[in-house]
């Protein structure tokens, strides 16, 4: 019997396996993919993320110091700083690096295996996995569900599922002279969300968007627009889609089980990014399991420390981001145009950039700061948009 089964070899699963294996535990990681880290994602992470979870230089494709935000009317707002704010990574290589270190520390990997069932009993957990040559049963003292959004494993262990999500659509395209990230907002691009064009290597970029419905049509319309403008010259890889949680699980633990990463909804609702939050939560999961196994107590009561700690770290950010996301979904194109114009003055931009609340990963303080700006507050009131009480509180 293993000590821990980790179900999913994304950032959360691999780092959990790495931290537990380094502590001497017997860990097996199961993933349905043959290529670790091969998941749709822009691969953008912050300076803070790479400071805490470093990447090899070969894994860094591009640094991002600025972005152009395009309003529904076509006006643009440049957000720029002198120092890099984020990096575009080779996501497969970065995620694979955690798995390589976990293997070196003793973790076993079963790739190309799907989890058909997951059950908890008084003595441990059982997972039935299969790879086309028949099922096999894996046993362990505990399990970490890190299978991403929509895999269904949280339902199998009675923890339900995330109640709100959005769908991401992304294609790889060939481009001309794109040297910074471009963001498109407005109902004709991505109603209530945003679209992106992210340069990766010379002549290549990722074109994508988030949408609740008709995302494939919206992406085709944006692709046609950018081709007409001469920015995009062709499609390298056809569009694919994936689900992104907007809310968290009501509870991400039970007897012998922890849920980490996208499966728990540990994703920034403002942007849909989840790599950094998944890695932070996986550290807490590994520490919680270490304490519980050492104490011989894998009850829900013992593992509830995980919930307290990750929500203490991320809970306010996730709630604020979700409320802001729902608020943004209420705005029409004219309202978005007005707000972007109001924010585009030199004085306002200077105030934003000089604020200590501005962070690529921690959006709560920045969101509340913007909503307290007189012109924004007045505009939302004029639009008849009610700002949730949680977003009006002072930091």
Task: Give the key terms.
eight-stranded mixed sheet, about 400 residues, FAD/NAD(P)-binding domain, 3 domains, alpha/beta, D-Amino Acid Oxidase, Chain A, domain 2, globular, seven-stranded mixed sheet, 18 strands
Written description of the protein model:
With 395 residues, this protein is an alpha/beta fold. It has three domains: 2-41 and 91-163 and 246-314, FAD/NAD(P)-binding domain (3-Layer(bba) Sandwich), CATH 3.50.50.60; 165-243, D-Amino Acid Oxidase, Chain A, domain 2; 323-392, no CATH class. Helix content is 36%, strand content 27%. It has helices at residues 11-22, 47-52, 91-104, 153-156, 215-228, 275-295, 300-329, 333-343, 346-354, 364-372, 374-383, 389-392, and strands at 2-7, 27-31, 44-46, 60-64, 66-70, 76-80, 86-89, 108-111, 114-120, 125-130, 135-145, 165-175, 181-184, 195-199, 204-211, 232-245, 253-254, 257-259. The strands form three sheets. Strands 1, 2, 8, 9, 10, 11, 17 and 18 form an eight-stranded mixed β-sheet that branches. A seven-stranded mixed β-sheet has the order 6-5-13-14-15-12-16, covered by helices on one side. It has a three-stranded antiparallel β-sheet with strand order 3-7-4. It starts with a strand and ends with a helix.
Describe the SSE topology.
Layout: E1 2-7, H1 11-22, E2 27-31, E3 44-46, H2 47-52, E4 60-64, E5 66-70, E6 76-80, E7 86-89, H3 91-104, E8 108-111, E9 114-120, E10 125-130, E11 135-145, H4 153-156, E12 165-175, E13 181-184, E14 195-199, E15 204-211, H5 215-228, E16 232-245, E17 253-254, E18 257-259, H6 275-295, H7 300-329, H8 333-343, H9 346-354, H10 364-372, H11 374-383, H12 389-392
Parallel strand pairs: 1-2, 1-11, 2-8, 5-13, 11-18
Antiparallel strand pairs: 3-7, 4-7, 5-6, 9-10, 10-11, 12-15, 12-16, 13-14, 14-15, 17-18
């Amino acid at each position: 019997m293993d000590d821990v089964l980790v179900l999913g070899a994304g950032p959360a699963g691999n780092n959990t396996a790495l931290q537990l294996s380094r502590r001497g535990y017997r860990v097996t990681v199961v993933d349905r993919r043959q290529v670790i880290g091969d998941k749709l994602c822009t691969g953008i992470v912050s300076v803070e993320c790479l400071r805490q979870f470093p990447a090899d230089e070969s894994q860094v494709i591009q640094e991002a110091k600025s972005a152009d935000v395009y309003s529904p009317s076509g006006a643009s707002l440049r957000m720029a700083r002198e120092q890099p704010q984020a990096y575009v990574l080779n996501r497969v290589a970065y995620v694979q690096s955690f798995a390589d270190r976990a293997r070196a520390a003793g973790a076993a990997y079963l790739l190309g295996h799907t989890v058909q069932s997951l059950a908890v009993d008084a003595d441990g957990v059982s997972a039935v996995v299969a790879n086309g040559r028949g099922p096999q049963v894996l046993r362990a003292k505990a399990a970490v569900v890190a299978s991403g959004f929509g895999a269904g494993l949280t339902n199998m262990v009675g923890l339900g599922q995330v109640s709100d999500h959005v769908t991401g659509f992304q294609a790889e395209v060939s481009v001309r002279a794109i040297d910074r990230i471009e963001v498109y907002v407005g109902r004709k691009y991505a109603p209530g969300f945003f679209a992106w064009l992210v340069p990766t290597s010379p002549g290549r970029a990722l074109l994508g968007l988030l949408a609740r419905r008709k995302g494939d049509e919206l992406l085709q319309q944006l692709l046609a627009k950018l081709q007409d403008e001469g920015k995009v010259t062709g499609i390298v890889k056809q569009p694919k889609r994936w689900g992104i949680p907007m809310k968290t699980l009501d509870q991400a633990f039970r007897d012998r089980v922890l849920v980490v990463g996208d499966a728990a909804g540990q994703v920034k609702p403002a942007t849909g990014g989840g790599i950094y939050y998944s890695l932070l939560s996986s550290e807490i999961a590994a520490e919680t399991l270490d304490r519980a196994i050492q104490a011989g107590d894998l009850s829900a009561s013992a593992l509830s420390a995980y919930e307290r700690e990750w929500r203490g770290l991320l809970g306010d950010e996730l709630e604020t981001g979700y409320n802001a996301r729902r608020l943004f979904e209420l705005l029409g194109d004219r309202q978005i145009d007005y707000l972007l114009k109001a924010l585009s003055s030199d004085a306002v931009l200077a105030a934003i950039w000089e604020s200590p609340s501005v962070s690529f990963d921690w959006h709560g303080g920045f969101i509340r700061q913007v909503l307290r700006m007189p012109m924004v507050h007045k505009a939302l009131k004029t639009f008849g948009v009610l700002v949730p009480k949680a977003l009006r509180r002072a930091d």
